[in-house]
Amino acid sequence: MNQQAADNAFQHACKLGKASYSENVSKGISGYLPSLDGLVKNSDIASEINLGIVEIPLKKIIGTYSHSRSIAFANNFMPLISGESEFKAKWTSLYAAHMEEGIRDPIKVYEYLNWFYVVEGNKRVSVLKYCDAYGIPAAVTRLIPKKDESDPVIKIYYEFLEFNKQTGINSIWFSKENGFIELGKYLQQYTPNLTVYSDKYKHFMGNIYRPFREIYHKLGGDKLTITTGDALLEYIKVYGLPNEISEEVLRNRVKKFMTELEALSENQSIEVRTDSMEVPKKNVISSLTTLMTAKKNLKVAFVYAKTIKTSGWTYAHNLGRLHVENVLKDQITTTYIENVPESNEAYGYLKELAKDDFDIIFTTSPTYITPTLKAALEFPNVKFLNCSETHSFRHVSTYFGRIHEPRFLTGIIAGSLTKTNIIGYVATYPIPEVITGINAFALGARMVNPYAKVKVEWTNKWDQPDKAKNLGIALNNAGADIIAHDDLPIPGEESKEYGVYSLKYTNDGGKNLSQVHFALPIWNWGIFYEKLLRNILSGTWKIVFDVLNSNPKLVNFWWGMDTGMVDIIYSKTHVPLQTQNLVELMKKMIIQNEYHPFTGPIYDQNGTLRIPKDEAASYEQILSMNWFVDGVEGEIPKLDEERLSDPLTEMLGIKQ
């Protein structure tokens, strides 16, 4: 290479450096490279580990070790020292060498929080970054900071250390906790066909991560606030980990997926529809705006995880389906499928329904959120809704009920009836909806009986009547004379434990002496399905959903007792009249928004104030509850690896 070409490259690099410097200074930040000696002190470091020679990506090299060397380079590692100098001579010589045979000599770096700071080799890094090279060998010394549970970055870094130990991968980073843990689980189960690479982790980086990163950045991903690792993990949750990705397929998928990633990046607020939709006066079929053309009737499908005969949850949703079939008659056609796998296998069922020209598909379990999103991305002209309260997507709206409101009222009944001041609660899965229900129940009980305690036991499964019955007996033996259960009854099984009931067993064989059902929270799904479908049929779909506009909204439906979608039934025979009057008064106040079950002051089990006096818990606080209120005895279980592999826990993102 001639000297003139090397000189031109240096001058161009200097222009890039000065532009970067000026841009950063105008923003009020330093224009120079960050230096490690200004970031850490000896007291911050728990240990130093020599990792030997490691190939590191240049994008992860962000600074120098000492401040004195940092001022020679702009923040983008381009030179700031222009003109004839020894610096220029060395830079151009390295550039020429790289153009002719490549730079192979390792540099020396410190690694801190998965970023690299150069001790020796700043000019080599500068040349390679100018040439847009991918990586460079480096002698790496890792500086491990002391653990600090209050610092999220350090917590993420310790997750990275374990991930890096297992995989050898150092070029991925996540902006939130548990990202490395989740990706690690996918990679543990990953079994690609190895051809070019020696192990599956190198195969993953070469055939999955790097192609994804290139396309993701070309489509604007580099401008989002989330990391490439964040984006790839969300992609994997939907599409899985293939052996390799064709560029065309990947580009089409990522292009569709970008709106979801943008929402994740912006941490976009959700429009939560807590009010009932106004039903149009005229029920005239018209086009569904841009989503579908006018047709004789609307085809609606319901997807069930269990059968109608064996699951109270499925039975309740099917009553809603039968209701809309009856009231909307020839304007709609409905169908349902039962026993759909609670895993990504559900996508195949959704795909067939979409191909059969169903216009609306309701997936009635939160376990279906991932396959539902995948199908919604694949079939944009079909509207998918998922019954859950913990997710928000631009392509999938979710719907759920404020079931904690009637559970609060059943708590009032239980608290007024208990003679032992011990109430048992048989819970299913430790997800926010269940935890919120337990807390609301306990608050209701202690409103009328400050001495009441709520003992919690977990089935860790849905629809487990035998296990639930045994736990009810165990709670009864522990002193609980009133039992609550968050499962729904199955038709025809009058003796099944459900709702709020009394239970008493003898010591000789456990014969049931008495079982009185006092109260039960109920779901009226037909109310939601009817109002939603009537709006669609009237042509007001665009008002209800605004998904395909240039600025789409995240729309969730979260209806309460004021809409009638959730309610309470109780025994007029066994519940005292005074308690009935109180329940009706509180119900009226909740419906009229004059009282909120989660009104402070509310303390947790440890005595920590969670909700201040006279404040009501927000939507976000309620849907992210991972703590018990004062008065609840029991723990929220940490799920073991076997349970974490369960589709529900994986898709709901339950933390260990």
UniProtKB/TrEMBL annotation:
The keyword Signal applies. Residues 299-585 form the ABC transporter substrate-binding protein PnrA-like domain. Keywords: Signal. The keyword Signal applies. InterPro entries: ABC-Purine-Binding (IPR052910), PnrA-like (IPR003760). Pfam families: Bmp (PF02608). PANTHER family: ABC TRANSPORTER SUBSTRATE-BINDING PROTEIN. This is BMP family ABC transporter substrate-binding protein.
